């Protein structure tokens, strides 16, 4: 029995601990390091074209909210490009605020301040 469950992933808990921290360094009979025994193998995230995640119906809903009645077929790709440009700018500023706080997680106030810096004040997300 190798200690592996369904899907070929490990148990998630090393021999020396409860899955938190580095645990105790253990050596096997032949001097092999066993401290990582039973921990899951990490999979690298493959980034694909995330712009396709902004679907045609989602763009259509946004346009309806803006009062658009009818749209050309070529508008969808253009909207994705403009949206990516806008989000890149907001995220750069948000990350700057996050790094200034010496934090690793972007919170809502970082985004609010980034939008305010770009002249797009957003209300309703105060502390």
TrEMBL record:
An example of a Gene Ontology cellular component annotation for this protein is: nucleosome
Question: Bias regions of kind Gly residues — which residues?
Answer: 1-18
Tell me the domain of life: Eukaryota
Where it mainly occurs, coarsely classed, is nucleus
- What residue spans carry the region label Disordered? 1-37
Cell division recorded as keyword: no
**CDD domains membership:** HFD_H4
Note the InterPro entries from the entry. Answer: Histone-fold (IPR009072), Histone_H4 (IPR001951)
- Record note on quaternary structure: The nucleosome is a histone octamer containing two molecules each of H2A, H2B, H3 and H4 assembled in one H3-H4 heterotetramer and two H2A-H2B heterodimers. The octamer wraps approximately 147 bp of DNA.
Designated name of the protein: Histone H4
Q: Which organism is it from?
A: Spizellomyces punctatus (strain DAOM BR117)
Q: What is the lineage of its organism?
A: Eukaryota, Fungi, Fungi incertae sedis, Chytridiomycota, Chytridiomycota incertae sedis
């Amino acid at each position: 029995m190798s200690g592996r469950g369904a899907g070929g992933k490990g148990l998630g808990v090393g021999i020396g601990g409860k899955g938190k921290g580095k645990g105790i360094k253990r050596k096997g009979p032949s001097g092999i390091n066993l401290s990582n025994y039973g921990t899951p193998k990490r999979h690298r995230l493959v980034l694909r074209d995330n712009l396709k995640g902004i679907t045609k119906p989602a763009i259509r809903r946004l346009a309806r909210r803006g009062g658009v009645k009818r749209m050309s077929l070529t508008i969808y790709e253009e909207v994705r490009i403009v949206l990516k440009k806008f989000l890149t700018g907001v995220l750069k500023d948000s990350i700057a605020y996050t790094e200034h706080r010496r934090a690793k997680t972007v919170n809502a106030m970082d985004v609010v301040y980034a939008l305010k810096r770009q002249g797009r004040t957003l209300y309703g997300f105060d502390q």
